[in-house]
Design a protein that fits this description.
The two termini are 33 Å apart. By secondary structure, the protein is an all-alpha fold. The protein is built from 4 helices and no strands. It has one domain.
Length: 80
């Protein structure tokens, strides 16, 4: 992925773009869930959601720990 364009953006432009991306992330996630629910029933959409978050959460935790140099274990490391 080419990220050169971001290097020339101001802090305000970057924050605005981040806000845009996060909003669209939620929209896509919502439409994904609703589409699965419509096609395969709510209980199946909920089960798939559980599977996805069970896999995504450890990845996010690992990335956050590395990105912010968190070495504490458990909640203590995340609430500092």
């Amino acid at each position: 992925m080419n990220i050169e364009i971001f290097k020339s953006m101001s802090k305000e432009e970057l924050l605005s773009y981040l806000e845009f991306l996060l909003w669209h992330y939620r929209v896509v996630d919502s439409f994904w869930f609703l589409s699965v629910e419509e096609t395969h029933a709510r209980k199946n959409a909920e089960k798939l959601n559980e599977i996805v978050w069970a896999r995504a959460t450890p990845m996010a935790i690992r990335d956050l720990k590395q990105r912010f140099d968190i070495s504490e274990k458990g909640l203590k490391g995340t609430l500092a």
